[in-house]
Amino acid sequence: MSKRNLSEDLFKPRFKHPETSTLVRRARHHKREEVQSPLDGRTEPHWYRLINRLLWIWRGVDPLEIMDVQSRIATSQAEHTNDDYYDTVVGYRSGNWIYEWSKQAMLWQQRAGQQQDPELCGKQWLMAANLYSIAAYPHLKGDDLAEQAQVLANNAYEEAAPRLSGGLRELTFSMPGGSDITGFLHMPKGQEGPFPTVLLCGGLDALQSDYYRLFEHYLAPAGIAMLTIDMPSVGFSSKWKLTQDSSLLHQQVLRALPEVPWIDHTRVAAFGFRFGANVAVRLGYLESPRLRAVACLGPVVHSLLSEFERQQRVPEMYIDVLASRLGMIDASDEALRVELNRYSLKTQGLLGRRCPTPMLSGFWERDPFSPEQDSRLIASSSADGKVLNIPFSPLFLNFDKALSEITDWLAKRLK
Asked: Which pLDDT does position 192 carry in this prediction?
């Protein structure tokens, strides 16, 4: 089936799909506060979702294109589930978040289908993948339309990456007691493996295909391969619920790497963004013989998971993401607070104990999701720890510098 026909078939109207903001049915007790975060975006008036322009632009989306899609959503007169929020249009139609971003993605997909130049074709497929992923954001469980956009994002990514990088391998990993999962192995162009490899542990509101730029601009030039898998309950790992054993899937992948001929399993590091850092640090403790190093950016490892006041200050959308991942869509804030505390690596008795794995953690001052003390706790727990203080402004430039510094640190430990 062609990509165009797949798009039409997936989004064919069948019934009134639930609207994203209604999927988590918690009592909404805490006040909406203004939040601006380098990794998560910012709250903007009349938007349910955090608007994450920095990372969307970093992935390659044109700022004008972002504004154009947002304006189409904001001016819609269609039925909304919440009239205070622009991005709550009911049904797959004009003005609906998933519809408008998918429509934009389809334009790039069509261009890619008509493109003769392989590299330009790959860039256009990658743009389609990025836009389909934004359509599915924040990837809540039970969001039928978002799950269909995820399928299209992955299909577009499979078309894009081989045209842009040295090689893309789709790998299947067997999981004890459940469904297999799929990962993408990205290999540097013009080099022969097996490669030193970074196992990427992404955020809870992202797909594994969202991190191609990290590979292309930072890891590949250093001769490092990147292996991605989706977090539990997202994308290719959607059949797996997130549990207190948050690193379960990544542990099984690590243990399977000796069987992957393109990876030098003796030179592997983990890199975690946000909640992915919870996974990466956990791996540093539980799988230290298999890891050379662990790097974190804006880690969610203790404070946000254990401090109710901090949870009250982060946006509703992010709390909805956590509740969705934990399968607690009807839970009270109190019940969610009790459960989240069990995910703290300090509560679990890991952080604070000496860990033999070298660990670096980067943080931004006044980050509502990840305070400085979490990064210092990670570094002080490691036999070879480092803290990276990232200035907030200028945002994009400092984000780029931080990723370059982290890449250099990883490369030295993967030699």
From this structure: 85
